[in-house]
């Protein structure tokens, strides 16, 4: 059986994206953030506030997890999300470091 190799153009993505950099996993995370926001905004129903501050609190408690989920999973131009960058930074901080100098003295 003859297998032919072919080049895939760089602009072709291997996953379905609704918007550039925003696919189904990101949509799932935003929907989960919206569900968490919907649960949190019910807490504001029991606050002893006037109508306008209560509406503001409910809106704030709904939008906060929704926006946080979007900011965590949305990919930038280079294809990295804030979540993946935080994960990489945490992994990098656990790596041992080698210093070739001593503080306050010569080698």
Keywords:
107 residues; mainly alpha; two-stranded antiparallel sheet
Shape: flat
Whole-angstrom Rg: 23 Å
| Percentage of residues in DSSP E strands | under 5%
Spatially, the strands of the biggest sheet line up as 1-2
Largest sheet: 2 strands, antiparallel
How many helices in DSSP terms?
3
Structural category is mainly alpha
The level of helicity is 40-55%
What is the β-strand count? 2
| Unreliable spans | none
N-to-C CA distance? 63 Å
SSE pattern, N- to C-terminal = EEHHH
How is the quaternary structure best described? single chain
Mean pLDDT metric: 84
Could you characterize what this model shows?
It is a single chain. The protein has about 110 residues and is mainly alpha-helical. It has helices at about 25-40, 50-75, 80-95, and strands spanning about 15-20, 20-25. A hairpin with a 2-residue loop joins β1 (about 15-20) and β2 (about 20-25). α1 (about 25-40) packs antiparallel against α2. The longest helix is centred in the middle third of the chain and has 23 residues, at about 50-75.
In short:
Helices cover 50% and strands 5% of the residues. The chain is mainly alpha-helical and 107 residues long.
Present the secondary structure layout.
Layout: E1 17-19, E2 22-23, H1 24-41, H2 51-73, H3 82-94
Antiparallel strand pairs: 1-2
